[in-house]
Amino acid sequence: MIKAAGIAAVLAKGFARIHFRNAINIGLPVLRVDTSSIQEGDRLRVDLAKGIVENVSRGVVLTTLPLPPFIQRILEAGGMKNYFKTHPSFDV
């Protein structure tokens, strides 16, 4: 229900594999990043392809591993269900 609440992405220091995969499956971007410098109310700009999280409120730039291109394509489609509608053979 996080995505339905209008959350654009989830950032955390770590995720269990099942939670990471489930988020990708529903089209919710998740990034592993040190969140200790992020405060409630901060405005963030996230670049999934480059692995950059810019804290616009504080002028801080955080880096992480970019999501692999095949995961980015799944997210762009809106999740696995939508991806399979246009890629039935799972040609990532």
Question: How would you describe this protein?
Answer:
The structure is a single chain. The chain is α+β, with helices and mostly antiparallel strands and 92 residues long. It contains 3 helices and 5 strands, in the order βαββββαα. The strands form 2 sheets. It has a 3-stranded antiparallel β-sheet, with no helix packed on it. The longest helix is centred in the first third of the chain and has 9 residues, at 17-25. It is elongated, with a radius of gyration of 14 Å. The chain starts with 9 loop residues before the first strand and ends in a 6-residue tail after the last helix.
In short:
With 92 residues, the protein is of the alpha+beta class.
Write the layout of secondary structure elements.
Blueprint: E1 10-12, H1 17-25, E2 30-32, E3 44-47, E4 52-55, E5 60-63, H2 69-77, H3 80-86
Parallel strand pairs: 1-2
Antiparallel strand pairs: 3-4, 4-5
